[in-house]
Design a protein that fits this description.
Blueprint (H helix, E strand, L loop, with lengths): L1 H9 L2 H18 L8 H28 L9 H25 L19 H12 L3 H7 L2 H14 L5 H22 L2 H16 L8 H27 L4 H18 L6 H10 L4 H14 L2 H17 L6 H16 L12 H5 L6 H13 L1 H30 L9
Length: 410
């Protein structure tokens, strides 16, 4: 038995996850009723990731800040700039795609029980409220803005603490990191359960009626992931960006696609950053921050579904107004994590820019829920994988400027 487990662990995690996907699809298509019990593996896997992520972020950030050496520079300014640039360009690409391939919708009710934010001020107010949330409450509810705030403040306060205190923090961080590795080792089984549940519960037939909308949504996200983001990376590191891009998509995007949670993918991203040899002082902050504000996929969703409503209602929109939508989508998307329902519930906010009534906008949200099985998965994969991508890009760009050799392995 030990030999079998040892050989299984020697297989790369990506290959093991692929085997889990294949098994999940096969079971869902052949014996869906008899194998229904395996959905528990997916529930447990996502639950374990969500449980460990807040504690991991809290202790890693607090430890990294407390031991930060004066004069040791991190790349946070560059990373935040890359996050913002990518999110804005995602909204812009979505606007252009919507003008080239206009889509109309058959609106139907489906989102009556949710309440969208009243305006951009409410979105920003939610974010600011999350900053001053009770630390225990932030940990319980997975409020990463609050967790980051308290971890940074406590880290700064502990800079002058005794070495024994800092060693204790280091031991806690190492122990939690070990727990994360244990959880990630169960990814193949967990993803098998998630794939099985997705196919049995939703199927794919319900998505056929929205094929054109999905094609533009997913096409825009793939364009961001495979053209825009690589171009941003190339301009910063002046090297072939695709080995790094594909590594992030393969090892971060794949798990994010099936967990459909940027928060749950934080431990996976932390592990990938460690594998890439990145500076822990930087990625321990940039990864949880990216899970809350780096929202290129959300900007695509907000822009395309909003303009689909515009085209459906026959509203004439000039490109300048649509460009304003790109900015609004980028700002709104950065606050999506602070709004229950994420990017879909920010559509009424964007739709108000064109005078679209809230009841119609909420019908568009209903369409979003219908296609969410693919839209949300791809959106999360793009958002989460680019957290690692831009964290690595900022560090590699810094090394390039210092004349150091940067080695990127696929």
């Amino acid at each position: 038995m030990k030999n079998a487990i040892s050989k299984w662990n020697q297989i790369s995690l990506v290959k093991r996850i692929l085997l889990g996907i294949i098994a999940g699809v096969a079971l869902a298509l052949t014996i869906p009723k008899a194998a229904g019990w395996i959905t528990i593996f997916g529930t447990l896997f996502v639950g374990a990731l969500k449980a460990v992520a807040p504690v991991l972020v809290f202790f890693l950030v607090m430890h990294a800040i407390s031991k930060h050496r004066s004069g040791h520079k991190t790349n946070m300014k560059s990373i935040i700039a890359l996050y913002g640039l990518s999110t804005f360009l995602a909204g812009f690409v979505a606007v252009v795609a919507s003008f080239i391939f206009p889509v109309t919708l058959s609106l139907a009710p489906g989102a009556e029980d949710v309440t969208p934010p009243g305006g951009i001020a409410e979105v920003l107010q939610t974010l600011l409220t999350n900053v001053v949330d009770n630390p225990v409450n932030a940990l319980i509810n997975g409020n990463y803005i609050g967790i980051l705030t308290w971890a940074i403040l406590l880290g700064i306060a502990l800079r002058k603490a005794a070495d024994t205190t800092k060693n204790m923090l280091a031991n806690f961080s190492d122990a939690i990191s070990t727990l994360v590795k244990w959880v990630i080792n169960f990814a193949p089984i967990g993803i098998m359960g998630l794939v099985f549940d997705a196919i049995v519960t939703n199927g794919l037939s319900a998505l056929l009626d929205y094929g054109k909308l999905l094609a533009i949504l997913l096409g825009s996200m793939f364009f961001i992931a495979l053209v825009v983001n690589p171009l941003i990376v190339f301009l910063n590191i002046r090297r072939n960006p695709y080995p790094l891009v594909f590594k992030c998509l393969r090892e971060s995007g794949m798990t994010a696609f099936f967990t459909r949670s940027s928060a749950a993918n934080i431990p996976v991203n932390m592990s990938l950053c460690e594998k890439l040899g990145l500076d822990e002082d930087t990625y321990s902050v940039s990864i949880p921050l990216g899970a809350t504000v780096n929202m290129a996929g959300a900007a695509v969703t907000i822009s395309i579904l909003t303009l689909a409503a515009v085209h459906t209602l026959g509203i004439q929109v000039d490109f300048a107004t649509a460009l304003i939508l790109s900015v609004l989508a980028a700002v709104s998307a950065a606050g999506a994590s602070g709004v229950a329902g994420g990017s879909l519930l920010l559509i009424p906010l964007a739709a108000s820019l064109f005078g679209i009534p809230n009841d119609i906008a909420m019908q568009v949200v209903g369409v979003g829920f219908i296609i969410g099985v693919l839209q949300d998965s791809c959106e999360t994969a793009l958002n989460s994988s680019s957290d690692v991508l831009f964290t690595a890009t900022a560090e590699y760009a810094k090394k390039r400027k210092e004349g150091k050799i940067v080695k990127i392995t696929a």
